[in-house]
Amino acid sequence: MSRAPSIGRWLWFLVLAAVSVGLLVFVLRDVELEQVKGVLWRADTGMLITTILVSLAAFSVLPTLRWLLVLRSMGYRLGFGTLLFARFGSQPLKFAIPMRGGEAFRALYLRRRHGVPTTHGLGSVLFDLCLVVAGQLTLLCLGLAFSDASFEYGWIALVSLVVVTLFATSRGVQRGALRVVGALSSRLHDKLEELAVAFLDLSVGQKWSLYLYSLVVECAELFIMALCFHTIGVPISFGTICTLMPVVVFISLIPVTISGFGTRELAILTLFAGMASAVDLTGAAVLFAGVEVILPALLGCTMLVPFLGRLSATPVAECAATARNPSGPTTGLWPHLRERKAWWLVPIVVVVVVVALILVATDGQMPPLLYILQ
């Protein structure tokens, strides 16, 4: 009985791998690998090091802190190091487990090592993903607002943002959706209600605080894409990146490939076509995938064995359902920094915000600024 699902998972993994390889071959059909290699080899060394360090720091700190704030809002007081270990340890599993399995292992880790109920752990990951979508949609709307795109293209992003915001903040909408599910299956209703604990129990103020911080996190990802373009000498404005990169992110989230390989590169080449040569765009796409996906996975491989070892250890008992207390611990970025005295995080957040504002004000002309910083 247990062998069939295992075989099914392997078959599904092979299908996703085949789709990823097929899309990558399609992307590379008009360019030569030697040319792409030459573009990366000629990249500015200082800019390349800056891109790698900024990407690694942003990946390590900003999303981890967002997840920590979500869990604290739910009533679970876990340390930053614990969640950072869970994120890096589960990162390589995204390549081996289809359908974003790495996130499920994060929830399993919280259950077995810290007693967080599985549905609450999955709920925190789901709410974190919702914050990603809301942040990217907001940046997309802002990019369209300051671009030459007509409203007929921007209203889709605006309507999507309103829908996501309503589902994330309005308890009435959430309860209504649960009632519809309950009419179909009471058992499914109970499971979804536990899974939606972050949506149902957090106050509107807590949700908006998390949403505003998520904008910083998602803006950092667009900033890294801008660094990738400028590293290989493609001067694309930050406003253009704000308009197009959220679409790239959404396409890469579609679970038809392994970790977005193939869909991400195809989206970049398609959306940015005409702004640079196919070779340069391919080089930028490869560099972005390398610093955003491959490098964290390689670092995560060093933590994979202890991560799996802790998963296989004797699980601890479940925590009390403190997440059901809406008036639990204070949440938000600045209350967290005051309480934990984690002032070392302040420069990272401030630098990301300031640099993003400079990029918007200067229309993405960042190389002189980065050379000064180096």
How would you characterize this protein structure?
The protein is an all-alpha fold and 374 residues long. The chain has one domain (3-373). The chain contains 18 helices and no strands. It has helices spanning 3-27, 33-41, 45-73, 80-90, 93-96, 101-114, 118-145, 151-169, 171-184, 186-195, 197-201, 204-231, 238-253, 263-271, 278-312, 333-340, 345-361, 367-373. Helix 3 (45-73) crosses helix 15. The longest helix is centred in the last third of the chain and has 35 residues, at 278-312. The termini are far apart. The model is unreliable at 1-5, 321-331 and 363-374 (pLDDT under 50).
Comma- or semicolon-separated keywords:
374 residues; mainly alpha; 0% strand; globular; disordered N terminus; disordered C terminus
Write down how many β-strands occur, each being a DSSP E stretch of 2 or more residues: 0
* Helicity level: over 70%
Number of structural domains: 1
Report the sheet-strand fraction.
under 5%
Number of helices: 18
By secondary-structure content and strand pairing, the structural class works out as mainly alpha
Assembly state of the chains shown: single chain
Output the radius of gyration.
21 Å
Please give the alpha-carbon distance between the first and last residues. 59 Å
**Which descriptor suits the 3D outline?**
globular
Ranges where pLDDT stays below 50 over 5 or more residues in a row are: 1-5, 321-331, 363-374
Q: How many strands, what sense, and barrel or not for the largest sheet?
A: none
Question: Whole-number average pLDDT?
Answer: 75
